[in-house]
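Batch 3, record 17
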Amino acid sequence: MQLTSLSAARQIALLRAGEASSVELTQAYLDQIASHDGKVGAFLRIDPERAIAAARKIDERRTAGESLGCLAGVPVAVKDILAERGERTTCASRMLEEFRAPYDSTVVARLKAADAVLLGRTNMDEFAMGGATENSAFQPTRNPWDLSRSPGGSSGGAAAAVAAGMAPLSIGTDTGGSIRQPAGMCGVVGMKPTYGRVSRYGLIAFASSLDQVGPLARSVEDVALLYEAIAGPDSRDSTCLPNEVLPVGAKLHQPLEGLRVGYAKEHFAEGLDSEVASAVQQALAQYESLGAKLVEVSLPHSRYAVATYYVIAPCEASSNLARYDGIHYGYRADQTKLVAELAAKKKSLEAAGDRHAAENLDTPLVRLYCKSRSEALGPEVKRRIMLGTYALSSGYYEAYYLKALKVRRLLRQDFDQVFDQVDVLAGPVTSSPALKIGSMKDDPLAMYLVDLFTVSANLTGIPALSLPCGRTTAGLPIGLQLQAPPLEEERLLRAARMYEQATDWQTEAPPL
Amino acid sequence: MSKYTTIVGLEVHVQLATQSKLFCRCSTQFGAAPNTQTCPVCIGLPGSLPVMNREALRLSLRTALAIGCEIPPLTKWDRKQYYYPDLPKGYQISQFDMPMSEHGYLEISDAKDRFETKRIRILRAHLEEDAGKSSHDESAARGDSLIDLNRTGTPLLEIVSEPDMRGALEARAYLDELKLLLTYLGVSDCNMQEGSLRVDANVNLHLDESGERIATPIVEIKNMNSFRAVERAIDYEAIRQYTLWQESRQKIGDVPKQTRGWDDAAGMTRGQRSKEESSDYRYFPDPDLAPVRFSSEEIEKSRNGLGELPAALRARLQSEFGLSLYDAGVLVNQGRELVDYFFAAVGQGAPAKAVCNWVSQEVLRVLKERELGIDAFPISAGQLVDFIAKLESGQLPSSRSREVFDAMHSKNQSADQAMQKLGIEEVDDSALENLCRELLEANPQVVADVQGGKQQAVGALIGQAKKKNPNADPGRVRGICLELIGRGL
Ligand SMILES: [Zn+2]
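Prediction for the assembled complex:
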């Protein structure tokens, strides 16, 4: 029996029964990482000694009969965007390469309280901006199903780690699809909870009104386990909801009676890959055969969702990332060199008789801001900062930001109306399966369109989940997206489990 | 008639007297070692999030109601974005288009009647977090700048007036009245040296040019560290702007609003680099904070808890107790405790005017000399009443009242004890008459002088009378002597 092929739920049962130890389990994953991650590149950092030490401690406490947390002894990989006291949190950016937070994010604190074993930090697009994990300043991550392809992003490391059996559970974040999209492309389950279900305290912000932390795993049950460990009210995040999160428990496996599954005609329009379309249609048919009622619905404003998203997210990002100024922490440009350059420039302008230009040169401080940011932030991050700065500028604010907020409200109305008619909404996660690495490097607009089906859940704040629903002829995973009304994570998980129980997509492992 | 009118609007930043900062639990105590009162939230570390301090909101609601502001049902937080090393997040959390209060007023008056009582309209009062403090070490060879983030995130209430003040005198009156009000409300310690109260002034001139009214460009003055500095800066700026107008003929709108810094030592304002002032703050709603709703119960509760404010108190002292505006002002300016002391004394039957005189002169003198608050003043209101009663009845001669008063507060004695120790007792009329008769008989020249029309000659006897009996009241000695001479002894 290979421990790493078991679900986290099963592993917990074995650990409780004393049939396996956390040290064994953790070592098994470290071995998997040692043999696969050279090819996949899912992890930015692992600390085997620390993980084993933590596992040993939990084993000892278990032996001593202490009561343990709900994830006791199970390894969890964490996206490198959540602060952990004393540890590096880089956001896959040169800017934060050496940043060590002096505090724990709420999610990390809850994982610690659940007695999970923190395995290591997973790769991502720099500051979670991107959909292919290619915008990491440190390394690309490869799709375990086809190493020439991207795992999706921005939580590409998180999804690839789970797909390759290098972690049973993985924490990702989702601002426009960053959990669901890589989960779909890597053939695993990933959930973006309702906005405010999981505390953002210690989550390094990309777009604060859209960011949400969520779980990735190989099964719906494991996703539910990890979700329940991290979700719930937090007084340190004013946007965190006060509603308690109740464990779904055994109900998870009970099919939902009389389930109404909606599908939006807008999701099956031109541009959708034919293999993806047919897999999703088969999934809908599967639901029907399970007794669900299919209802066609319409989301008229969804065609504006990507445009709306690419105004709101960059606006918030331009503000959130202003703090990386080269003064307080993070990367700082070479000041001596910069001051010398400015002095030389001034001298040459004066020699040329251009007094005006000489007087209007940047101050060393302004130059330090510019240079530090230019050098330490990647092109996609800079592009979004510029987009957002532009859209918030006086004279443009109403036309872009305020208008985007209006469309955001209309989109939410669309979804409210849809959820009057159906219990869950089903559709594709992405318009195509995993793409070749580098294929969209020079076409940011095409990359933005990858988020077509996922951004609406962030703009409206509703919970959404991605689970495997097929394979292309080339063997690439295809994902099914389910969406539910706010706070209906339980319904979402049960609807997903209903489908999962009837299929066996999740049991297959990539050919590594 | 002056050549121009000076138009002034003031922006006052009030540091609210909360224990902790606006969005974290760090202390707001002044004077701690640099960067010791900080946490991930107020230094803007990645991933940190603000959580609003309800106490700051409570204090600003109290203030806003006291200056007659309307409280909109909903207010929100916005990010004001700019780069500066003492602003660690790259934005300040403030309120832009939906301030927590607007459309209020503050009434100002002058006890010396140099201007007519008027209402200064208040445009808005909004909450925001403070930035840190930069110190630029010019002497160091490398010109290093140091940043202290202890102040970062401290709650500030920014109170913006309309340009309703005419000149430095009214501006000063507005600031004095506002500070007094804030002190009564207990919402701020108003310590300008520690930065708890900061003032920026917008100044321009209105001129009459052959019947046409012209406004000069508005200048914002910063870096004024005292109310006196505000007055001086406004006076200086008015003259500077008038001179400039004569040279340039620039009207409002011809040039962008300029910012100038006040140099107190040099007694002048200086232009600040235009690059530092032209900015687009790219305000937008802070997605980390929920909008705030004030319920009408909350507003009413706050309004009912305001207590009697300085303007009402002054009015009551005038109408109920017959004090002058000046006297009422002197008492009220010292704070509610002193006014309560006055009320306590008057309530026990002492005449208001006498109590007011003793309190506003002698009591205040002693408090100042001994650096005491009225709560620690040794003479209780009851003892003061007793003292004044003895004085009014003549039992205590007014010539010796100060001696008794000083003994009461310095030796913690009652009026009786002090009088006894000082040997003060009322001299009855017959004893006094005998004393005067004795003196007149011994000084025939004085009698002759008085009879010759020189009444002031009696003065020579008063000193002698006090030597023979220290309790002899000079006024009565004079009166009795004149009467005896008039009667032909
Ligand atoms: Zn703090």
